[in-house]
Structures are given as C-alpha cells and as structure tokens.
Amino acid sequence: MRIARFVGGWVTGLIALVLVAALFVFWFDFATGLAAASGLGALGYAFLWMAFGLNLLLWTVMGLLRLAEDGARAALGRRRPAHRRERPVVRGGRHRERVLVGAGAGGGAIEGPGHAGDTLVATRGDAGGGGVLTSAPVGGDVVATDPDDITLAVIIPAHNEEPVIDAAISSALGLFNRWDIYVVSDSSKDSTAEIAAKTGVNVLELLTNRGKAGAIEAVIEEFALTDNYDGVLILDADTELDPGYVEGAKRQLADPEVAAVAGFVVSEWKPGERSVVGRVISAYRDRLYFMLQYLMRFGQTWRRANVAFIVPGFASVYRSRALKQITVNPPGLVIEDFNMTFEVHHKRLGRVSMNPDTKAFSQDPFTFGDYRKQVRRWTLGFWQTLRRHKLWPGLFCVCLVLYVFEVVVVSLMLLATVVLAAFVLLGTVAGDLLAGVPLFTDAFTGVTAFLPLAALAVGLLVPDYMLTCVMTVVRRRPSYLIYGLFFFPIRLVDAYISLRMIPKAWTAKSDGRWSSPVRVSHRDK
C-alpha cells in the first residue's frame, strides 16, 4: 500500500508539473500577445504579472538571496574550528535560580487578584507536579546565547475549546514541563477549564469574557511570565506543535536581535474528517500558507529586510524583554497578532525571525460560514491595526504601503474583471434578447473588442490554477487538481472582504471577543 501511494504521488507530481509548464507557456504566449495588441505596453505587462502578485515575485527574489547568504554562512561556520561552548553572557551581574513554586498533587482553586466586576480563578490540576517555574533575578537582563539556556512559557488561550484543548495540551506536554504550560479559559461555557486542570498544567479561568488579547494579557500578569521566563509561546487551542518546534524557536532566539519568532503554519490535512467544502477550504489554505510563508515571509524576515507584517498568533514566541513593551490589548481591535507585530517594528524592539523549523499544525474552518467569519476577523484586524499605528519613517512602512496598494488594486481588478466577464457572458448567451436594451449592444461591442471572453477567462483562471498545480507537485496530493477548480471563487470572496473591511475598520467598534467555530475532537479519531 505504501509503495502504491509513493508511486501514485510521484506520478501525480509529474502530471501536475507537465500541466504547470504547458499552462505557463500557453498563458505567457496568450497574455503577451494580448498586451502587445492592446497597445498598453509596459503597463499592460505589469498588470499581467499582477495575476501572480508583484509582492510575491519581489519577496521570492529576496528569499533566494537570503537562502544564498544563509548557505554561505553555514559553509563558513563548518570551516571554522570547533570551540568549547561558551556560557551565556550575563549583563548586570544577574544569575538565575530556578525555583518550583506551588508544587504538589493537591488540586483546588487559588483566588487571583481582584478586578472590578471580573474575578480571576487560577486552578491547578490534580495530575501532580503542577506549579509555576520562576527565577530570582538580581540586576539586569540575561541575553542567552546558548539555546539550551533559554526558558519558555506556553500560553494557551481558549474559549469553548472542549473538543480540541486536550490535544493542544498533549502536544505542548510532549515538549515542555507541565508547570511551564498556562491555559487561560476565557469565560468558557463548556468543560475547557476542567479538561485542562486534569492534565496538571496551570489554569487561569476568567469569569468575564475578555477576548484572546485580554486573556493573554491576564495570564501574563497573573503569573508574571515575562519576569520568570526568557520568552513566551502563544499557542492556539486548535494547534499542535511539531516535535522540532521548540528546538527551532530557541535556536532563533539565541540571536539577541530577535524579538519574536513567527511560527510556520501547516494546514492540518485530514480529509476523512471533513466534508467536500471542508476539504476545499483546507486545500486552499494549504496553498495560501505555502505561498505566503515560503515565497513572501521567508524573504521579509531576512535580517537585511525585517519587514514581516505579522507574527501569526497561532503558535509564535515573543522574547520577554520585548513583550514587556508591547501593548497586547489596546481597545478597539478585533485580533491581536497584527498589532503585536506592528508594535515590535514601531517601537524598534528587535527583529522578527521565521524559519520552516518552527512548524505547527492548525485546524482550518470546517464550514464556509466559519471560513468567512475568520477571514473577516483577520482582515478587519489588519485594517484596524493600520488605523491605530498609521505610518512612520522606515523600510517597514515603505513595504507596507506597496503591499496595501497591491491588495487594494488586485482586489478591485478581480471583482471588476468578474463583473465584466459576467457582462460579456450574458451578451454572448443572450445578446439577441438584450439587443433592445439602451446602450447594451454598444457597451458589449466595446468591452469585447478590448477584453474578449477568452482573454478574461485565461487571464483570471489559468494563473490561479498554475499555482494549484505547483502545490500538487509539492504536496503530491492528486485531489488538489480537483479542489483547485474551486479556489478562484474563494479568492473572490477574500477580495470582497478585503475591500469591505476597509471602511468598517474606521466605523465598527470591536472588543476582540471570541466567536467559537465548529471544531472536531481529536479524541474521537
């Protein structure tokens, strides 16, 4: 069976590779001929390449330059003689004394500090060994240069995550001690807090719904995490860590310039648990994540650029000394991760790092309704963050303006072209019936003379499907060739939401409270 799958995967990859080459040759020949015939010249070619994304092309080149530089650094490092590993550099005469506070097998609740109208209850599980790992600082900050000496806390904010919270905690327990894991249940109405407490990790239950950012802020304050650890990992309750995640994150944090490590998201591919719509969404997200991370964010996080717009909130690490200066929960924002990333850049707290060695597996929406709600939240959060921070001098904002310009222009082009395509299709199918409508015939003749239906179809659909064929080769998943036929309509929904959320970011009042999506329990597998 394994041999059959292996052979089938490679055969599918070869078929998809041939499709990519054939489609690109066809598209390029057709598109360049159309651009030359239209008389648009260089402007016409620029619009054609925007079908793939100018930012995507730019940062792909930057990523290749980064890859070359990293390869050269690695080669130089191998030539140098090995030296005895040095201890961390200590500034200000500080040393660390690790103390286990509150250990013991007893359960029960510990009343937290008072808040007006908002009671915090911290609970410890009965699995034994729960507690808070702290350090006794004396003097200034430690800059750890040895990955093994970097201490990390794990925060898992959750709201009504009963089906998945156990899997997220189990994933973290495979890489961390239980006393370094902190679950904050944000006014959950189900058994989220009880399930977490039974695992023996630290649990903070908020009786008033604060939203994800408020929950993160509360658990950091309650357990003084930025004082007791070198870094804090924020892990979504529907996310599971790759076994190499911690090693990769610590290796990146060993560079004292790094303020945050962006997790590398991988779509959880379990088609047997999903409907056809759920599979299309998961496959689409897999393609999107691959392009954004390998072809954009890898180049944006090059140390010579440092212009990544987001440290994803699903599984990312912030250095404690940077997190202390970040406003995690400002009023009026629907999500936290764009804002926290902008804070790192705006306050010049350090560099954002990303490598594929910090993988984590995220559960995508199962229904189109949940997908649409999630994209609305993400997009609204981006525009709200832009509204809050505005622009400031620097390379980050220059690249941000270029990105925003392309998002708006391409979204407008996609939607306008679809409207034109519908108009041309209507005229082609029912032109005789509509001939009596004033100006219809003249408008139809003018549009088809400049953009015939074939040109609209080729210009819109072929580049998109080429990207799907590339992903079929990379993932060796034959089903992508079928699911990819439905990706373009999802792109149109994304484009509409991107434009619709712009005015909403300046008019809507957001409190960041949760909206629980459909989840599938990992315990039922």
Give the SSE map.
Blueprint lengths: L1 H37 L3 H8 L4 H26 L9 E2 L7 E4 L7 E3 L8 E5 L7 E4 L6 E2 L8 E7 L6 H9 L7 E6 L5 H7 L3 E5 L4 H13 L1 H4 L2 E5 L3 E3 L3 H9 L4 E4 L2 E4 L8 H25 L14 E5 H4 L13 H10 L4 E3 L5 E4 L5 H22 L5 H36 L9 H11 L2 H23 L4 H4 L3 H21 L18
Parallel strand pairs: 7-8, 7-10, 8-9, 12-15, 13-16
Antiparallel strand pairs: 1-6, 2-5, 3-4, 4-9, 10-14, 11-16, 12-14
Helix pairs in contact: 1-15, 3-9, 11-12, 12-17, 13-14, 13-15, 13-17
What is this entry, summarized?
This protein is 51% helix and 13% strand.
User: Strand share of the residues?
Assistant: 5-15%
Largest sheet: 9 strands, mixed
Q: How many helices in DSSP terms? A: 17
Q: Helix fraction?
A: 40-55%
**N- to C-terminal separation?**
21 Å
Class by alpha and beta content: alpha/beta
Outline type: globular
Adjacency order of strands in the biggest sheet: 3-4-9-8-7-10-14-12-15
Strands, total number: 16
Q: What do the pLDDT scores average to?
A: 81
Computed CA radius of gyration, to the nearest angstrom:
26 Å
State the low-pLDDT regions, or none: 83-117, 126-140
Description:
It is built from 17 helices and 16 strands. The strands form 4 sheets. A 9-stranded mixed β-sheet has the order 3-4-9-8-7-10-14-12-15, sandwiched between helices. The chain starts with a helix and ends in an 18-residue tail after the last helix.
